[in-house]
From TrEMBL:
The keyword Acyltransferase applies. NCBIfam families: cit_synth_II (TIGR01800). This is Citrate synthase. Belongs to the citrate synthase family. The gene is gltA. It catalyses: oxaloacetate + acetyl-CoA + H2O = citrate + CoA + H(+). It comes from Deinococcus metalli. PANTHER family: CITRATE SYNTHASE, CITRATE SYNTHASE, PEROXISOMAL. One of its GO terms (molecular function) is citrate synthase activity. One of its GO terms (cellular component) is cytosol.
Length: 377
């Protein structure tokens, strides 16, 4: 008898030193360091470098990496022109997928699969993802594309390119924390897809385009958009409990709740909840937060004993919304953070590469013979 692991759940296919998850206890670490400590003390730039190199960088290494990112923020002019010509009604993830593929055409190192080349390409992509996504959003809104600035942090520069306004230090830091929380998360669907493509010895751009395609799905990166749709459907905090109770009674899926790995609170959601509460109270935008608070309490009371709790998508959308970001750009922003984890995982797997070639149990017909076309009923 063969046991089929639906969704590859529980299947080990490689080793990694990057990210560890203990879902039953709500633990997430990068390089052995808890995600809470990364969020409190680090930056997206530092975590990105740590993931790429598998160690905490020195001050000099981080300064050099930051300089490389800033020096590579510009995208080719022809790519910017192409982005401006994209149909405005397409999903931003479609635009991102196409733009990254197009970006690879201008990179003379694109076909080099050596580790040094992959690392250099990764640094450029981490830098340019922010510019590409901001350009897609601006073009989609019919606004002129804004060039990057080298005097702002990675997070601050993205918000500036997106909105045209220099963010406050607090806004930039809040967005930076959100990027840190999303930078890597083990063998999720998009990371696995990137690795599967890499295992064929394909180029890094193909790996990342594959990952973007996987992230686009509503069961992965699109969940935070769905959470905001749910909040709009609920309407007001006083209707939240009845809305969720009805959903639970009907055994309907509640977006942002439950996770394949976590059977306790997603530790990233605990960090974001605190920041969502802070921003909501400070900016006077408490409606969304109050609805989420009620939904969380209702869900935990009803089904928490089954190991179903809010995940990172539950609060991330409200944080982005309070920063003035429209929900259709939430998933590209997920990619903006996850590009670091994708690249780091591709590089790590490449060091001991083996072509991924799983099997499937055949359940079709047997002992059949070809029937000539004229004899078929």
């Amino acid at each position: 008898m063969t046991t089929i692991a639906k969704g590859l759940e529980g299947v080990l296919f490689t080793e990694s030193k990057l990210t560890f998850i203990n879902g039953s206890e709500g633990i997430l670490t990068h390089l052995g360091i808890p995600i809470q400590e990364w969020a409190e003390n680090s930056t997206f730039e530092e975590l990105s470098l740590a993931l790429l190199d598998g160690k905490l960088p020195t001050a000099a290494e981080l300064a050099a990496f930051d300089a490389h990112l800033k020096a590579n923020r510009m995208i080719p002019e022809k790519l910017a022109e192409e982005i401006a010509s994209f149909p405005r009604n397409v999903h931003p993830m479609q635009a991102l997928r196409t733009a990254v593929s197009y970006l690879g055409l201008f990179d003379p190192q694109a076909e080099d699969t050596g580790e040094d080349a992959r690392r250099a390409i990764s640094i450029r992509m981490i830098a340019q993802f922010a510019t590409i996504i901001a350009a897609i959003a601006r073009a989609r809104e019919g606004q002129p594309v804004i060039a990057p600035r080298s005097d702002l942090t990675h997070a601050g520069n993205f918000l500036y390119m997106l909105t045209g306004k220099e963010p406050t230090t607090e806004q930039a830091r809040l967005f930076d924390i959100a990027l840190v929380l999303h930078a890597d998360h083990g063998m999720n669907a998009s990371t696995f897809t990137a690795i599967a493509t890499s295992s064929t010895l394909s180029d890094v751009y193909s790996c990342i385009v594959s990952a973007i395609g996987a992230l686009k799905g509503p069961l992965h990166g699109g969940a935070n958009e769905a959470v905001m749709d749910m909040l709009d459907e609920v309407g007001t905090p006083d209707q939240a409990e009845a809305y969720i109770t009805k959903k639970l009674d009907n055994k309907e899926k509640i977006m942002g709740v439950g996770h394949r790995v976590y059977k306790y609170f997603d530790p990233r959601s605990r960090v974001l909840r605190d920041y969502a509460e802070h921003v909501a109270s400070k900016e006077g935008k408490s409606t969304y937060y109050q609805i989420l608070e009620t939904i969380e309490k209702t869900v935990v009371d009803r089904i928490g004993s089954k190991g179903i709790y809010p995940n990172v998508d539950f609060y991330s959308g409200t944080v982005y919304s309070d920063l003035g970001i429209k929900k259709e750009y939430f998933t590209p922003i997920f990619a903006l953070a996850r590009i670091s984890g994708w690249c780091a995982s591709v590089i790590e797997y490449s060091r001991d590469n083996r072509l991924l070639r799983p099997d499937a149990q055949y359940t079709g017909a047997t002992d059949q013979h070809y029937v000539q076309l004229q004899d078929r009923q």
